[in-house]
Automatic annotation (TrEMBL):
<keyword id="KW-1133">Transmembrane helix</keyword>
<feature type="domain" description="Nucleotide-diphospho-sugar transferase">
    <location>
        <begin position="205"/>
        <end position="365"/>
    </location>
</feature>
<feature type="transmembrane region" description="Helical">
    <location>
        <begin position="12"/>
        <end position="38"/>
    </location>
</feature>
<dbReference type="Pfam" id="PF03407">
    <property type="entry name" value="Nucleotid_trans"/>
</dbReference>
<protein>
    <recommendedName>
        <fullName>Nucleotide-diphospho-sugar transferase domain-containing protein</fullName>
    </recommendedName>
</protein>
<keyword id="KW-0472">Membrane</keyword>
<dbReference type="InterPro" id="IPR052636">
    <property type="entry name" value="UDP-D-xylose:L-fucose_XylT"/>
</dbReference>
<dbReference type="InterPro" id="IPR005069">
    <property type="entry name" value="Nucl-diP-sugar_transferase"/>
</dbReference>
<keyword id="KW-0812">Transmembrane</keyword>
Length: 375
């Protein structure tokens, strides 16, 4: 006997078809939305994971191109400065093997023309020692690079880059109060807030310890350090009142532990700088943690803190692993003044003529160490 059709089956079938259609619609929509979801949130999640969970980078192919690719990767971790890629490209000629053969290093010096005799001398010490890298000079002022070009022996041995404009842009962004201090406390008479006039004088003068212009010049090393690291290279940062006798890089190779990410000359002054880090002679490996550290060193304390105080303070507060170089192989002015007879020329790798702020005294120290090469 045939069952009577009471009309329910078509209605149920219709409802089933509607449910299936809705399910298909949401599944198809989800498939199309996944790429956009990943593009919007996924990169943020990758950035967070990269920042907090990935170990410090160790690059096996340390070519300039590999570093450029890494810089692009790090864009998710920080804001980009206008002109970063062009700046890093200009640094290409100064890239050299770092603490190990698979690392790339840039030796950077920040100088104005007032300190040119010491800049000239430290470059000559590298040449006389047979060291094969070309230091990168970041010039505070328009006179430094032409002065280098006028020295026949330095031609082709240095990468000189104008730096003042880039530095001022970063100062205005990261420490806007710094420019107000320079305008207010500098020694340039009747400047009328004319920054160009102020820096023309800063460029040509040798400043002693304590002057606001001196603080500006030495704090510029922190920006140089950050810029080199942001370009994807290990940063070897030194003052200009340094003389080299041998290659320091073997002493920067201390293994893969985090304590080797920051190495520095012993300042032999724990009363003022509790970690004894001398910021005028440091080697920083290129790692994500170091990028964050130097950015905080620049942006957290007030500008009035000099670079060395900033480095020691922040690293002490955070318990940052680091290593201090042997004070007999890398002596400073304190060792010269108090332990000169104990210093062995055959053991000294590099000497730093600090612990004084007078041009003649620094030159005398370097002469007595056999590291003054100007006639």
């Amino acid at each position: 006997m045939q069952k009577r059709n009471n009309g329910k089956s078509p209605r149920l079938l219709g409802l089933l078809l509607v449910v299936i259609a809705i399910a298909i619609f949401f599944n198809v929509t989800a498939l199309f939305m996944i790429p956009y979801i990943i593009g919007w949130q996924g990169q943020k999640l990758l950035a967070i994971g990269d920042s907090f969970f990935r170990p410090p980078s160790r690059v096996t192919k340390r070519s300039f191109e590999a570093s450029a690719a890494r810089r692009r990767e790090l864009n998710v971790l920080r804001d980009r400065d206008e002109g970063d890629d062009a700046f890093c490209e200009s640094m290409r000629g100064g890239v050299a093997p770092g603490s190990t053969a698979d690392r790339a290093m840039v030796h950077v010096l920040v100088s104005n023309s007032g300190h040119f005799p010491f800049l000239h001398n430290v470059i000559l010490s590298l040449i006389r020692s047979g060291l094969d890298w070309r230091p990168v000079v970041l010039a505070i002022g328009s006179n430094v690079c032409p002065m280098i070009e006028n020295q026949t022996e330095l031609v082709g041995k240095v990468v000189c880059m104008p730096y003042l404009e880039r530095l001022l842009l970063q100062l205005a962004r990261d420490e806007p109060e710094s420019m107000q201090q320079i305008k207010k406390e500098n020694v340039v008479p009747n400047h009328g807030d004319n920054v160009t006039k102020i820096f023309e004088v800063i460029d040509s003068t040798f400043y002693g310890w304590g002057a606001v212009e001196h603080k500006f010049l030495i704090n510029a090393k922190l920006y140089a350090l950050r810029d080199v690291l942001n370009c994807g290279f290990d940063a070897f940062v030194t003052d200009t009142d340094v003389g080299f006798r041998r290659d320091p890089r073997p002493y920067f190779d201390v293994g893969d532990g985090p304590e080797g990410d920051v190495l520095a000359q012993n300042d032999t002054n724990p009363t003022s700088y509790p970690l004894n880090i001398n910021s005028g002679f440091m080697y920083w490996r290129w790692t994500d943690s170091n990028l964050r550290l130097v950015n905080d060193i620049i942006t957290v304390p007030p500008f009035w803190y000099i670079d060395q105080a900033r480095v020691n303070l922040i690293m002490l507060e955070r318990g940052t692993p680091h290593m201090i170089l042997d004070e007999y192989k890398f002596p400073n002015g304190h060792m010269f003044l108090n332990h000169f007879d104990e210093l062995d020329d055959d053991e000294v790798i590099a000497f730093h003529a600090n612990y004084n702020d007078r041009q003649g005294q620094k030159e005398d120290m370097l002469r007595k160490m056999g590291l003054w090469y100007l006639r």
